[in-house]
Amino acid sequence: MDGKHSWHLRAPLTIVLLIWIGVAWIAVLLIGLAIWGAFGQPPLDGPLSGRERFLLITTPVALATATVVMIRVVITARDHELSKINQAETQRHNVEQRITDLHIRAAGLLESDKAHIRVTALHDLERLAQANPHLRQSVVDEFCFYLKQPYEPPAREPQSPHRPPAEASEPANLQPSFRRRRKTSGLMLLLMTTAVDYLNERSAPSTTPVREQHEDDDSDDKKADSASERRVRLHAQTILARHLRPNDPENFWTDIDLNLSEAALENINLSDCEVRNIDLSYATLYGEFNLQRIHIRGRAFVLLAHFHRHGSILFQDAIFDGPMSFNAAELNGLAVDSFEGAKARARARLPQGQRHLLPRGLRLEAVPEGAEYARLIR
What we know:
This protein is α/β, with parallel strands linked by helices. The protein is 48% helix and 15% strand. The protein folds into two domains: 7-40 and 51-102, no CATH class; 110-153 and 230-377. The chain has helices at residues 7-10, 13-39, 50-109, 115-131, 136-147, 176-203, 210-242; strands at residues 257-259, 264-269, 274-275, 277-279, 284-290, 295-296, 300-302, 306-307, 312-320, 324-326, 343-351, 363-364, 373-377. Helix 2 packs antiparallel against helix 3 (50-109) and helix 5 packs antiparallel against helix 7. It is elongated and about 150 Å long. This is Pentapeptide repeat-containing protein. Keywords: Coiled coil, Membrane, Transmembrane, Transmembrane helix. The chain crosses the membrane at residues 12-39, 54-75.
């Protein structure tokens, strides 16, 4: 029994009964002394009458009966309260066990090879965390772990340079008979060419191995899987961002740490979010990295994150309450090329008096002495 229950439920039953019996006898003694003092000592110089003898016999019996009844009442009340507490604890344990089973099941579904099942698992975890605040950090960790799986965005299909030739325009002054002969000659030439190609294919052995056909099929399957995985990852990032924005109090999850170290992220949008700490060390980021108006109350750690070319990093009006490390050089002796080919448009605020490792090309603006934040500018 935990310490939040009253003492008479945590103490052994024998001690409880002795305490109650002692309290009852002390109460009887005090009442007797009060009656003795109020009415004086009863006369003892003559024989006792029948009524006095009756009272002398029945009074101890009544006291003993009252003591037994009191003991029974104490035991019954204690058993009833213990039963309610045990029932509540059993129900709580069953609920926690059910939540744990749902959590394990949803986390296991994230390993499915079917994209729609993985999306369903993400929604199950989201509902579980929304209904159970103590599980929110654990669910966020599950999302982050999923985003740490090996991933590379699918390559975009280039447009084919081969286009069907446009039909040649005919002069308007051609005679109808000449046009008919021209069309007939073209049709005959097409039929003859088709027939020759068909005969060559029948007579010549096949030059396309079966293995190449299988390789083409495997390549198509990999492209489809990569596209499906991309959609699932973007959906996971959207769910995370939705619950980190304080402008929606009902869905906002407070005091969340985002551990996205070694994650593969694509077009992640954390604008207007609020987190406690964020770790993007050794992460790989594709496309846009949006931190506009984000509020990081702890530490922002982005050591050695790799930003692909043609991306953009946006953190206008972001607020960092703790130290900020953004792919900086001279960190544990490592020389890092910051933001390879990416754009950095910054107007963020950083706390004064802390050591910040800033992206290349950015610096802290001089601010009046005593100011709480310094502004990050190009």
